[in-house]
Amino acid sequence: MAPADWIRRHRIAAFFLLAYAISWSIEGAVTLAGMEPSWTTWFFEGFLSPLSPVVAAALVLSASGESVRGWLRDILKFRVHPKWYALAIGIPFVITYASGIASWALGGPVDWASFEFDPISIVIGIVLGTLIGGGQEELGWRGFAQPELQERYGAFRAAVIIGLLWGGWHLPQFVFPGGMRAEWPLALTVSYFVGIVAFSILLAWIYNGSGGSAFLAMLMHGTDN
C-alpha cells in the first residue's frame, strides 16, 4: 500500500504520527547538538516544533486530495461574536489568578509581583503567544483533529483524546536530557498532564462555540502561554 493510500485511510493516526515525528525530531536534534538555551534554541523548540501539528494536518489533507488553502480559509474565522473573543482571552486570566490564589491558600510560594497588570506587555504577549508562541499548534489540534475526531466520538471525548495525545507530544520536554521540564517533580508533572487535558476541553468548547474558529483557539492558547 502506498503511503498516501494509508494516510487517506487512517487520517487521524497519520496526523498524530506525523506531528510527533516532526516535533520529536526537532527536539531530538537540539538535544543531540547540545545546544544551550538561546534564541536559536527557541527558534527550533519554541517556534518550529509547535508548527508540527499544522504541518502534519497539511500533509494529511494533501495526501487526501484536499485543498490546504481552503482548509485554512475555513478554520481561520475572525468574524465571530465578541463574547468568544472575551472568553478566549478572559478564561486564561481567570485560571492564572485562581491558581495563584489556590497556591497561596495551600501555603505554597507565590510571586505576586509576576501578577502585576501591565496592559502594553499583556497585549504584546498575547499577540506573540498567539502567532509564534504556541498558539500556532491549534491549527492542527483544534483546526484538524477536533472536527475529525468529534464526528466519531463527540466533542467531549474528542477533546479528552486530543488532550492525552497533546500531553504525550510534550514528552521530550520531560525525558530528553536538558529538557525544559526534565527536572520537574512528579506531582507537578502529573498536574501538568491533568491540566493539559482540562485545557483541551476548554479549547474545544471555544472552537465549537465560535462556529469552528481555530483562530479563537489560537488566541486562547497564546493568552494562556
UniProtKB/TrEMBL annotation:
Keyword Chaperone annotated: no
Transmembrane segment boundaries: 12-35, 41-63, 84-106, 112-133, 154-172, 184-207
Listed InterPro entries: MmRce1-like, Rce1/LyrA-like_dom
Superkingdom of this protein's organism: Archaea
Entry keywords, A to Z: Membrane, Transmembrane, Transmembrane helix
Keyword Transmembrane helix: yes
A molecular function GO annotation: endopeptidase activity
Residues covered by the CAAX prenyl protease 2/Lysostaphin resistance protein A-like domain: 121-223
BP GO terms, sorted: CAAX-box protein maturation
Database matches in PANTHER family: PROTEASE, PROTEASE-RELATED
Protein name in UniProt: Abortive infection protein
Organism, scientific name: Haloferax profundi
